Amino acid sequence: RKSEIQIQYGRRRNETSSFTPGAEDTPRTMKSETSVFLWTANSSSISTTHNFIHMRGLPYDATGEDIVKFFVPIRLVKVLVEYGPDGRPTGEADAYFRTHQDAVLAMSKDREYIMKRYVELFLNSSASREEQ
């Protein structure tokens, strides 16, 4: 079964601008940070997870789908692609994983390429009691 993909656009904290990048059919629900949220799991399995990798050096035209494909076969819970206050991509994103082990395994992709740019990965995860 294919995963559903939902995209929401947000704005930077404490800013009043409501820039919405993308097509006119983008959702109008705004969050309180500058990011695009791309969920690759069904809504029942989306929970707060602290198992994520910060990505730096992404091509500015990289999409959430490009990031999902980058980590295959490891499944992501969600991807946050960051946008600056001017509405342009920053070249950074956070990739969230279901478990710490998945995040550690995904670190094997450090300095691999998306399009023509190598991407640096920074682990922001620690093993929970349940995983130890």
Automatic annotation (TrEMBL):
Occurrences of domain RRM (ranges): 52-122
Listed SUPFAM superfamilies: RNA-binding domain, RBD
MF-aspect GO terms: RNA binding
Gene3D superfamilies referenced in this protein's UniProt entry, alphabetically: 3.30.70.330
Organism domain of life: Eukaryota
InterPro entries to which the protein is assigned, alphabetical: ESRP (IPR050666), Nucleotide-bd_a/b_plait_sf (IPR012677), RBD_domain_sf (IPR035979), RRM_dom (IPR000504)
This protein's name: RRM domain-containing protein
Organism of origin: Sinocyclocheilus grahami (Dianchi golden-line fish)
